[in-house]
């Protein structure tokens, strides 16, 4: 479990990381081999979660760059309310917790008890976290409007199903975050066709002026 002391230290690290990145961008003759992950300190529990994830053969885990950005965004919302749809084994959950301050809370929802159990084992002792075993869309439909500072929609619900339900729960000024928008070998048949539909839906929705949406990963759009 991340201690809150460590969590607040991570807040500073997160901002330092952003500054380092900006500094790099302005350096003349930046080496093309620069790897920003060299500057990222992983959440302490991540290595153990990754080991269990590999043992399980779970191949849908979030990438380190996505995790690092989630941690930075979480650190920007003091006392924030966060929602993750699709806990998986808890990899992004661990990154979000590492950025959150002691007053913030995170709910993470999944339908698969066998993968969520890994998150429960390694992160379940963190009182800021509530793990929910439920269909993401059913969960979303019961939620009040405008309650989350950040939603990481990392399952079909909230992204390809129930997009409106998901955007509805994001606070004005909050973050709606999705990734995995470029082709991947583990995509099921028929999945690729959903991507342009989602992108168009996002652009047509007429979102509130100050709702930001970021699309991350192998895939910034
Ligand atoms: C891309 S993975 C999540 C990865 C995780 N966020 C991470 O950082 O490693 C998608 C997850 O969505 C879950 N899922 C599938 N259908 C779901 C549903 N209807 N509601 C909630 N979760 C669902 C799967 O069990 C899977 O764990």
Description:
The chain has one domain (about 10-215): Vaccinia Virus protein VP39 (Rossmann fold). By secondary structure, the chain is α/β, with parallel strands linked by helices. The protein has 8 helices and 6 strands. The structure holds S-adenosylmethionine. S-adenosylmethionine (SAM) binds near residues 61, 88, 91 and 115.
Write the layout of secondary structure elements.
Elements: H1 4-25, H2 46-56, H3 64-75, E1 81-85, H4 91-99, E2 105-110, H5 113-123, E3 129-133, H6 136-142, E4 148-153, H7 163-169, E5 170-179, H8 194-204, E6 212-216
Parallel strand pairs: 1-2, 1-4, 2-3, 4-5, 5-6
Helix pairs in contact: 1-3, 2-5, 3-4
The structure holds S-adenosylmethionine.
Residues 60-62, 85-86, 88, 91-92, 109-112, 115, 135-136, 154-157 line the site of S-adenosylmethionine.
Describe the structure concisely for a colleague.
This protein is α/β, with parallel strands linked by helices.
Q: Assembly type of the shown chains?
A: single chain
User: Termini distance?
Assistant: 34 Å
**Total domain count:** 1
CATH homologous superfamily caption: Vaccinia Virus protein VP39
Structural class: alpha/beta
Main β-sheet, spatial strand arrangement = 3-2-1-4-5-6
How big a fraction of the residues is strand? 15-25%
Nearest-integer average pLDDT: 83
Q: Describe the biggest sheet?
A: 6 strands, parallel
What is the CATH topology assignment? Rossmann fold
Helix content: 40-55%
Number of strands: 6
Ligands (ions, cofactors included): S-adenosylmethionine
């Amino acid at each position: 479990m991340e201690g809150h002391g460590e969590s607040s230290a991570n807040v500073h690290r997160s901002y330092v990381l952003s500054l380092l990145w900006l500094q790099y961008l302005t350096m003349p003759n930046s080496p093309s081999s620069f790897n920003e992950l060299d500057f990222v300190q992983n959440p302490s529990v991540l290595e153990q979660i990754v080991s269990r994830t590999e043992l399980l053969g779970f191949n849908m885990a979030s990438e380190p760059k996505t995790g690092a950005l989630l941690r930075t965004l979480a650190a920007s919302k003091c006392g924030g309310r966060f929602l993750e749809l699709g806990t998986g084994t808890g990899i992004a959950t661990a990154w979000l917790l590492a950025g959150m301050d002691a007053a913030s809370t995170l709910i993470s929802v999944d339908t698969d008890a066998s993968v969520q159990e890994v998150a429960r084992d390694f992160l379940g002792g963190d009182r800021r976290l509530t793990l929910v075993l439920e269909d993401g869309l059913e969960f979303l439909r019961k939620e009040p409007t405008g309650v989350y500072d950040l939603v990481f929609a990392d399952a079909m619900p909230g992204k390809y199903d129930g997009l409106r339900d998901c955007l509805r729960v994001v606070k004005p000024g909050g973050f709606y975050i999705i990734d995995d928008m470029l082709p991947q070998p583990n995509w099921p048949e028929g999945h690729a066709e959903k991507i342009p539909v989602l992108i168009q839906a996002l652009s047509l929705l007429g979102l509130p002026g100050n709702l930001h949406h970021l699309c991350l990963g192998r895939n910034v759009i």
